[in-house]
Amino acid sequence: MKIISSIDELRDQLRGQLRTAFVPTMGNLHEGHLSLMRLARKHGDPVVASIFVNRLQFGPNEDFDKYPRTFQADVDKLEKEGVYVLFAPTEKDLYPEPQEFRVRPPDDLGNTLEGEFRPGFFTGVTTIVLKLFSCVQPRVAVFGKKDYQQLMIVRNMSKQFALPTEIIAAETYRADDGLALSSRNGYLSADERSEAPLLFKTLNQVADEVRSGHLDTSELEKKAMAQLAARGWKPDYISIRRRADLQPPSAGDLAQKVELVVLAAAKLGVTRLIDNLEI
Ligand code: PAF
After folding, report:
1. CA distance 260 to 214
2. pLDDT (tens digit, 9 = 90+) per residue, 106-132?
3. What is the pTM of this model?
4. Whose CA is nearest to atom 8 of ligand 1?
């Protein structure tokens, strides 16, 4: 595997490649990321991964400084997956001058759910993703469904800018007890780790209630948040949305059984976990 940090070198290395499959990451790789690499391999060749902890998508009080950086362990894992190039730029490589041009997602999609609780987050994500796409010029790029809203925003961005990159969705990779794998799970204490699967269990309960015909979505959301809060969690939201645009479903939508997804974000101790489940 070639490890490349400069944009020019990356372009030289990938010149003429028409089927590149790309997996952008912020490192601290776990099985979930590796499953993205395997999916990428099915959709293209060569597979290119990136590791870059993107300052633009962190709020001033978020965990940019303490975000886990495990470069050598990540390299070993990617080597085993047969990744052809790891693009691992420094901040200077990627932002040689301040990044003044930004990509701002539309308000209805970018300022709801994660965007409401993490202002500016999606502008940070879309700006770096567009820049990484411009560096790698992939045919396909793989994003996990765990970051459901991110996946939709990146997909819509790619479509609206007519980028030549198809966005592939990868299923969420879960531990045996249901917890979605995430680099931030590493912040959990042992007790919190055994409590953490409750988030996915709660999503399943909500989904089961909707499937069995309970259509007062706001009551279901409130009940689920209260259940988490009673066990010491601090939920930001549990929200039932239309899959198509992540907006709240109307009574008509519910009657017509439009496709739904329930999304959640909640803090357990100092760790903020997110998850979702298609209903
Ligand atoms: O999902 C992530 O790890 C990040 O948001 C991404 C897509 C690599 C952009 O920094």
Report:
1. 13
2. 999 999 999 999 999 999 999 999 999
3. 0.96
4. 25
